[in-house]
């Protein structure tokens, strides 16, 4: 796939859903983080993970809760330029929940470390309020694509608007083979169109693991591989830097 004909993940989120009721997300119990969060590099300067970001019990609570949300199956035929994505999806603008994920989990501190601060492309200020939930059932997948950045507006503690830009995609896996989900790996292709198994880097699902990958101009071609049994549940948002 030529870089100038990039297949994009999906169009920028509409910002008009501010009036939609936000879900009553379950509390983070036990209090987070449950382990010392250490960023583990998987691909230098491009992909990092934080294992056990959510404990297994919390992942279970979240999956039961998320099941009750009005997920919508994406059409198999995308608009021109968008990647084929077949999954069930829910999306909401929820600055309060984005802020909880940022400040009540240890994430803010984990990405502030001196050794990793250079990765994020600016001064990190929070998470994208555009929260996306994905459920992949057997046969569902997210075809190879690049994630684009977006301009967003965050809120400071004093309530003022803070112009920001997304720089890294955040995926929080809530299920894995330990819960009966087979397949569904997030696979990165460092050499763009060269889909050779020897070069690809497949990240297996791990319940409660958080993955961050750089997006925008430096985004690696990646895909969500087909799920063949069970269900893959993911919470998606993005890391934001000051604009
Ligand atoms: O579900 C996955 O593993 C990948 C999701 C993804 O690429 C995206 O949300 O842009
Ligand atoms: Fe993506």
UniProtKB/TrEMBL annotation:
It comes from the Eukaryota. InterPro entries: Oxoglu/Fe-dep_dioxygenase_dom (IPR005123), P4HA-like (IPR045054), Pro_4_hyd_alph (IPR006620), Pro_4_hyd_alph_FE2OG_OXY (IPR044862). GO terms for molecular function: iron ion binding; L-ascorbic acid binding; procollagen-proline 4-dioxygenase activity. Its cofactor is L-ascorbate. Residues 11-23 have a biased composition (Low complexity). The keyword Secreted does not apply. Residues 126-243 form the Fe2OG dioxygenase domain. Residues 1-25 are annotated as: Disordered. This is Prolyl 4-hydroxylase 4. It comes from Parachaetomium inaequale. Keywords: Dioxygenase, Iron, Metal-binding, Oxidoreductase. One of its GO terms (cellular component) is endoplasmic reticulum. Gene3D superfamilies: q2cbj1_9rhob like domain (2.60.120.620).
């Amino acid at each position: 796939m030529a870089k100038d004909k990039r297949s994009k993940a999906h169009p920028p989120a509409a910002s008009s859903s501010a009036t939609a009721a936000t879900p009553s997300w379950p509390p983070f119990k036990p209090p987070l983080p449950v382990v010392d969060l250490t960023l583990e590099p998987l691909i230098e300067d491009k992909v990092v993970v934080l294992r056990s970001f959510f404990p297994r019990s919390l992942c279970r609570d979240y999956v039961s809760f998320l099941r009750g949300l009005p997920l919508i199956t994406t059409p198999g035929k995308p608009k021109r330029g968008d990647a084929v994505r077949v999954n069930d999806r829910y999306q909401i603008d929820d600055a309060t929940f984005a802020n909880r994920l940022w400040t009540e989990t240890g994430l803010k501190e984990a990405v502030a470390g001196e050794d990793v601060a250079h990765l994020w492309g600016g001064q990190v200020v929070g998470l994208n309020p555009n929260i996306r939930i994905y459920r992949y059932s057997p046969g569902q997948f997210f075809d190879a694509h690049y994630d684009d950045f977006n301009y967003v507006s965050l809120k400071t503690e004093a309530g003022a608007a803070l112009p920001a830009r997304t720089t890294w995609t955040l995926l929080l896996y809530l299920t894995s083979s330990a819960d009966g989900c087979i397949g569904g790996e997030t696979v990165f292709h460092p050499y763009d169109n060269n889909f050779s198994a020897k070069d690809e880097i497949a990240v297996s699902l791990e319940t409660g693991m958080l993955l961050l990958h750089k997006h925008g101009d430096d985004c690696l071609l990646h895909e969500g591989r087909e799920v063949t049994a069970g269900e893959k549940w993911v919470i998606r948002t993005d890391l934001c830097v000051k604009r």
